[in-house]
Protein: 4-hydroxy-tetrahydrodipicolinate synthase
Organism: Thermococcus thioreducens
Amino acid sequence: MRGVIVPLVTPFNEDYSIDVPALEEHVEFLLKAGVHGVFINATTGEFTSLSTDEKKFLAEKGRELVTSAFYLVGTASSNTFEVIELTKHAQDIGADYAVIAPPYYCPLNDDALFRHYSIVAERTDIPIILYNIPSCANPLSVSLIKRLALEYSNIAGVKETIDSVNHVRDVILEVKGERKDFRVFTGLDQHFLNTLILGGDGGIMACANFAPEIHLAVWKAFQEKRFEDALGYARRLAKLSKVYDMASSFGSAIKLAMSVRGFSIKPVLRPPYMMDGDEVKEDIRKLLAEVLG
């Protein structure tokens, strides 16, 4: 698995129920665009606002829909045994990878985090992508990632949603350097090109929900060694990532951007998140006009 992977939004109706037709339409759009992977029950998909049954429902529905790309399922929880349950479910329905963010709310040291991931890795067979997102959960250190990767062959990679080139560099050099099949993805649109330059494998980036053509253009140009083109597209992507700074949450930013671009997904977030208003939407509209035309 390499390239552009999309962490899906979860479409909701006004009554906060899951909007299945909008989900089907969105996945079809992304597959036609040519993305390399689709990731359901992601942070962008508001997984912490979903019940266990809803997570399983979405995982099963996504497996039906994603037919021409890698399929990833988020199985994170602060309850280790729920992670096992969700990861086994992802394995049973035929997902290609489970993506597991660290436990949140309770601060844990590296030994506790190692034990958490070890228990899951030992009780499941599906390849696992670690998800480092220190703004929302316990951070994963380079030494911990390396320890897990070298101990468990089914821990297959990491998504790095961390605003640190040095951290990503060290993971690539120290972990991927010793285990060549270990995959390293950025979770930040603005770090896509530099992650590829450092030797990473791609990105799992939320703006690809509404502008996958820019991410795919970066990827294609880099693979074809058209580096000036890659740089130009990466600069557009960096500017596009300013969308996150305009809204009160990344969920609001992405769904407002999708609304501006004409997607049928409704601008609805489940509480406790709230959608921003017309003023923010207008700012996002101006940004998208500048970057996407």
Observations:
- The two ends are 31 Å apart (CA to CA).
- Strands lie at 3-7, 37-40, 70-74, 97-100, 128-132, 155-160, 183-186, 202-204.
- Residues 278-292 form the longest helix (15 residues).
